[in-house]
Design brief:
With about 575 residues, this protein is of the alpha+beta class. The protein is built from 14 helices and 25 strands. It folds into five domains: about 80 residues, 2-Layer Sandwich (Phosphorylase Kinase, domain 1); about 180 residues, Orthogonal Bundle (Transferase(Phosphotransferase), domain 1), CATH 1.10.510; about 35 residues; about 100 residues, Sandwich (Immunoglobulin-like); about 80 residues, Carboxypeptidase-like, regulatory domain (Immunoglobulin-like, Sandwich). Helices cover about 30% and strands about 25% of the residues. The chain has a five-stranded antiparallel sheet, covered by helices on one side. Strands 11, 14, 15, 16 and 19 form a five-stranded mixed sheet that branches. The longest helix has 25 residues. The two termini are about 30 Å apart.
Length: about 575
Amino acid sequence: MPDSTLRTGTKVPSELKRLQPLPEKIGKYTHISRLAEGGMGAVYKGYDPELKRWVVIKKLKVSKAGKNLRTRFTREAAILSELTSQRIVRFFETISEDGSEYFVLEYVEGMSLDKLLEKDHTLPAPLALWFLKEACLGLHHAHVKNIVHRDIKPGNILIAKGANIKLADFGISGLAADESDAPQPDNDKIKKISSAKIIQQQITQTNVALGTPSYMAPEQIYDSSSVDQRADIYALGIMLYEMITGKKPFEGNSLQERYAVIKKGKYKKASSETPGTPSVVNRLIKKMIAFDPDKRFSSVEEISNIAESYLKQYNEKDIRQQLANSMARSGAYNYKELVKPNSRRNKAIAIICALGIAGGLGYYAYKEGYIHRTILRPWYTPVTLHLDMPTARSQDADLPSRAFFYKNDNDQIPELENCRRVFEIKNSSDHDAEFRTADIRPVYLKPGEYRVKIATGPYVWWSSFTVGKTAIDAHLNHLMNTSRKITFNTAAVDVQTGKDITANCRFQIETAKGLQDISAVKGNLSSGQVCRIHVTCDGYEEEYFGLLIDWYQDEVFINAAMRKK
């Protein structure tokens, strides 16, 4: 299956003697066109008439595909269904039709990073580090789910219109080593491998060396089934070097030669190949492509933080605009220097900041009521509200409440300017308390007639009140004994195929009478408790959910990913 599956303008391999006729439809998708085709499958572009969008459809010819290819195809669909980052190509659904298996993906209109490098050869350091940061953010979403990509390379970094980055082709990805049954690679054993014959034996075993050789970590050459996120970090380091210099740090005519060079760890610094490269790039590359995985960064989050810290001196909008300009040109693009803020600009900023601070202090004194409490107190009266509400059982999940004040003129009831307030909980660390009290910053009002609206999620409370010369300090307790009836929405899918199996599953809840179907207790369950849900289906392992339903929550959506026994 070609790995350039989502790029626009992908050419059909010239060695194909005869292409299969295009289907008129695949599932609900129409306007089918071919992006690529091989002996085992094909990649199509199609149109979704319901959602009015273009999609990519990957096809596997089941009758011709071997077991390993079918496993890889199914695994890619299962893995993609778990990934929801905006920086990863979205998975939509699977289709079984006419002896073939399909899965449907987001269509990314734009180009891939390898095509950009073919055109521009090298990228300026700020743009290269921006690519690195964006790729790390996408990979972090996969890594926290223990999913390792294992084939990071410029061809799998897609650039959508608008200069947004998306990671593609999780076809050989898998669980990180600590979540799989595969043995951990012996780093000492890796270091002792020197014979080309031994390496060749290792890389020709089934499922041992999946990936693109130029970007593969040394431990991945030894055994790709047990690598962790540090293999992706190694590939990112190779890619960063390539973006800066236009070449790879380790060259060789074969995988064996390249392995020998990698093992020595000798390469020309990026700054030697491309003068003017910032030192942070050299430091990142050195640690990312270390031969020993233990000497690399332990997470992509560390790398993205370093890149983001460096990029703070640039305007990201300018970087993305330069990228968009390059994508719009067919030939090499002459990147303009992304200028750092100069000293003259810094002086101007310092003056503006000083004026801003002075003005800010005056505004702060006014906003916090200091002027009203002192100079203007004879004409204004402080109004303070305290709201008692149930404690949210989930940490940091208290429902925000706001107060809105109005002039009670019995006509338009206009809202008072600069008088909106947010209730703040002072004893936020006391999670064992049954109730909490939230307070607002005082509002200063002239004597007269007013109304107040308290909005707390779905609850709205109104009251009229009169302001005189005496300060008002009011306690509100209308939420003290509030609870809501719970509605359950249930769904279940086969985690391997993505097929909806809701109709075949039982959704039961633990009650004092034992397990009961959720439908049988409909309307009898109230918020503010823990609900324990069991999902069962013949032939599948049971899924269990322990759900803490806070006092203000009333609708629960349960989506069970069922695994076959």
